[in-house]
């Protein structure tokens, strides 16, 4: 009985401690930077651009942007997730993110403590960030990101530590292997294949098939 009580107490304390140290989701660049902190940027898909955080696609259902942010958040890092406006220019937004990464590094944050995650249009933006930032230790997660246009653009390459997650039933995008293969300055590359049958919509909700390996990969150096 005593051992059972102790196990329950430890479980409750662990849950409380995790909640106490949980990082809130930031929708703006943080005014105060912790040089010892870890920072993760999440860029949503094109359908969310505008005013509605939960738009619906007739084929793939509702894009659960608030739930994705909530489930992607972790006590190990600060999550920054902007809601882009309608008709956002991908290259301009990518340059803004590059500038913010440079600000973090200038204020003492280690490059390996910075991660960019992007899905679909957000993944395209994340690829552009990698190409513009050109740092070998920054982390990038590409979720259904390698469309034919970016794959065919030979001037764009990947830099840093890269994880790609590709849904095998998604015929809108390609695996990122070809882009990684031509990227001579990439530090590491791993591609995970998932097969949910949900096509491009596999990343519309925070399902464990992609969420769990992404969080494990982001936290791998902690």
Explain what the structure shows:
This protein has 222 residues and is of the alpha/beta class. It has 7 helices and 9 strands, in the order αββββαβαβαβαβαβα. The protein has helices at 2-20, 65-72, 90-106, 121-133, 148-152, 177-181, 208-218, and strands spanning 25-26, 39-43, 56-57, 61-62, 78-81, 114-119, 139-143, 160-167, 186-194. The strands form 2 sheets. It has a 7-stranded parallel β-sheet with strand order 1-5-2-6-7-8-9, with helices on both faces. β7 (139-143), α5 and β8 form a beta-alpha-beta unit. α3 (90-106) packs across α4 (121-133). The longest helix is centred in the first third of the chain and has 19 residues, at 2-20. The chain is globular and about 45 Å long. 35% of the residues are buried. Mean pLDDT is 90; it is low at 1-22.
User: Unreliable segments (pLDDT under 50, ≥5 consecutive)?
Assistant: 1-22
Helix tally equals: 7
Helix fraction?
25-40%
Strand tally is 9
- H-E string: HEEEEHEHEHEHEHEH
Summarize the structure.
The chain is α/β, with parallel strands linked by helices and 222 residues long. The protein is built from seven helices and nine strands. Strands 1-5-2-6-7-8-9 form a seven-stranded parallel beta sheet, with helices on both faces. It has a two-stranded antiparallel ribbon with strand order 3-4.
């Amino acid at each position: 009985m005593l051992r059972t009580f102790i196990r329950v107490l430890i479980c409750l304390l662990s849950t409380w401690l995790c909640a106490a140290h949980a990082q809130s989701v930031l929708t703006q660049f943080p005014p105060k930077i912790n040089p010892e902190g870890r920072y993760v940027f999440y860029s949503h898909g094109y359908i969310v651009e505008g005013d509605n955080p939960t738009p619906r696609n007739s084929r793939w259902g509702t894009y659960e942007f608030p739930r994705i942010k909530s489930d992607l958040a972790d006590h190990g890092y600060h999550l920054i997730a902007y809601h882009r406006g309608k008709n956002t220019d991908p290259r301009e937004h990518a340059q803004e993110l590059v500038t913010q990464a440079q600000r973090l590094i200038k204020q003492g944050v280690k490059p390996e403590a910075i991660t960019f995650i992007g899905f679909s249009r957000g993944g395209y933006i994340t690829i552009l960030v990698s190409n513009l930032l050109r740092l070998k230790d920054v982390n990038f997660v590409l979720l259904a990101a390698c469309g034919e246009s970016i794959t065919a653009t030979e001037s764009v390459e990947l830099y840093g530590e890269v994880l790609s997650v590709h849904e095998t039933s998604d015929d809108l995008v390609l695996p990122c292997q070809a882009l990684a293969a031509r990227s001579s300055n990439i530090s590491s590359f791993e591609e995970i294949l998932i097969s949910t049958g949900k096509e491009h919509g596999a990343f519309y909700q925070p399902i464990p098939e992609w969420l769990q390996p992404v969080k494990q990969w982001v936290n791998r150096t902690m």
